[in-house]
Amino acid sequence: MARVLYFSRDYTPHDHRFLSALAATPHQIYYLRLERGARQLEDRPLPAGVTYVPWAGGVKPFTWAAVPTLLRDFQRVINEIKPDLIHAGPVQTAAFLAALSGFHPLVVMSWGSDLLRDAYRNRWWRWITALTLRRATVLVGDCRAVQDVALSFGMASERIILFPWGVDLRHFSPGEDSGLRARRGWQDAFVLLSLRSWEPIYGVDVVVRAFAEVARNLPEIRLFLLGSGSQAPLIQRLLYENDLLDRVYLGGQVGYERLPSFYRAADLYLSASHSDGSSVSLMEALACGLPAVVSDIPGNREWVVPGVHGWLFPDGDAHALAERIREAYNRRDVLTEMRRQARFLAEERANWEKNFARLLQAYDLAWQIAAR
């Protein structure tokens, strides 16, 4: 049994899932939280068997000015716990602090956009990215696009483990929608689903603009618009100006247990994200047998084959997204086969239980490298 210190930026549904799986291993798992953001991201308690570590962080948003204080207390945590391995991410926050400590073995886990987007913000972000990767024993990435960025920063390929996070294929599966469509009176509608956070990186405004364009000529089209975020004023203004409020269901943040019903109630999943690795929500949609229309970015191209699992559209192009939605509507006869192919792809590549073993392989590799 090894002592593993899991160090993450905040406490999210993804962290809950990782910690739950790690708690089921023979290892002793300690959880360190870098910050507490303005929004509560996960309301479930820590999984049984995970030890929360109190320290100088984890109580307010992270700032660069706090790094010296956090680093000193991080060293104290290491001295007290004496971990056999630190698992840290995202790259430029939690993993950067872990890298500054000089601890080995260090498994750095990319969260997708930290390498695909944040690594290129400016010289400072490029420097901390390079330092963190240089000091990482092993990097875990969720897609080939992340691997390519790591290689460009000088990371050795033999120290990179690809790990598409995957989803619970029993929880996310085709089935009944629990009456969602019927309660809205949408039994005969063509229903779209968007559930990315209302932040600039996820392009929800592009989705709403495309929906507004399509809705002018397709009276039967409807939209489940879940989520919230800093772009709420913009999203609400677009809905109001285009007279769409009676054709959109604003569902807010939907909990894990209710999510499958929304995937099952939709005819098409939409994501206009400007940056993504292997998107978990896309994998959830595929697992529920839902065809997808997603932005043509490297992470999405690894999952959606046009005409097989859905369609791609040029990143940021609302008109092109509207055209793809019209194509899906006009070719409703092909959606049944797309649903079958989507579920098949999820079973082949997005099985959380099978994919999680890749993370444990990364731990083993890190221990092997450290022992050399």
Write the layout of secondary structure elements.
Blueprint lengths: L2 E6 L4 H11 L4 E6 L16 E3 L14 H15 L3 E5 L4 H8 L4 E4 L3 H4 L6 H13 L2 E4 L2 H9 L7 E3 L17 H5 L5 E5 L9 H12 L5 E6 L5 H10 L6 E5 L6 H7 L2 E4 L8 H8 L4 E4 L2 H4 L8 E4 L4 H13 L4 H15 L2 H19 L2
Written description of the protein model:
It comes from Thermanaerothrix solaris. Its EC number is 2.4.-.-. Residues 17-169 form the Glycosyltransferase subfamily 4-like N-terminal domain. It is an enzyme of class 2 (transferase). Keywords: Glycosyltransferase, Transferase. The mean pLDDT is 95. The protein has 372 residues and is α/β, with parallel strands linked by helices. The strands form two sheets. Strands 3-2-1-4-5-6-7 form a seven-stranded parallel sheet, with helices on both faces. It has a six-stranded parallel sheet with strand order 10-9-8-11-12-13, sandwiched between helices. The protein starts with a strand and ends with a helix. Helix 3 crosses helix 5 (123-135) and helix 11 (280-287) packs across helix 14 (335-349). Helix 1 (13-23) links the parallel strand 1 and strand 2 (28-33). It contains 15 helices and 13 strands. The protein folds into two domains: 3-166 and 352-370, Rossmann fold, CATH 3.40.50; 180-349, 3-Layer(aba) Sandwich (Rossmann fold), CATH 3.40.50.2000.
